[in-house]
Structure prediction request, 269 residues.
Amino acid sequence: MILRRKYPFKESTWKEQLLYAFIVFLILYLLRPFGLAAAKSNILLPCLASGLITFLLELVHTSVARQVMKRKTKWTILDASIATILLVVFIGVGNFAFWSFYFGASLLNFSLLFSFLYWTFIIGLFITFISIGISYNRLLRTELASMLNKTAEQQTDIRVSIRDAAVRGQALELPINDFLFAESIRNDIVVHYKRQDTVATQTFRLTIAELMQQLPYDNVFQCHRSFVVNLNNITNAKGNSNGYVLTLSPAQEAVPVSRSYVAKLKTFL
Prediction:
């Protein structure tokens, strides 16, 4: 379930919080929602005060979220979403109380409260959920990119043998670090491997399952129904939560990681 996936807990800096408060000020002062357009007095100072209130509420929210995070073993997309919703409610109610006091309105004016919450949700959730999506995909790219620095020293002396299932005696022996990836084409497997500074290929009558049995190593990973890759040889990775595209040097071909294999791939990160 996507809401249970790991999400980076990142405290907003005071500059980011000040920026959000400034955006609130601009929206109030320039667009003048909540009946502010009908105000006869200069609303510059109260709009600035509303921005300051937003800034202070963000500080309190961040402090509380930090304490909650310390008690959790994993911060998830669901946690981030709930924290975002609570922040929006916090800011909406806080600004409602301020403007009710400014206009001399009753704090029991639920119509005005609903109006504040409605517009705060419309503006706030749109911005923050986009931010959550961007941050989550950045996390996935960062974690996947961390594999690019993975050392293969522990497998330097390991050699593997890939044997044809139909032709007796046809086999390819090579250091495991020279194996790049394999692609299933109809009933055959095309193995791509390093040979000096170039990429060589050899075709075998094999299935993906049979190849995986011959290469029982964690870094040999099935990333697609038609592809198996050596994670140690990844030199570039692009993509998001829907899938990745991998490059394994010195091969020029891009190897896809289908969405159904992303979760399994993350267990190796």
The chain is about 45% helix and 20% strand. The mean pLDDT is 81. Residues 2-148 form one domain. The first strand starts at residue 159 and ends at 163.
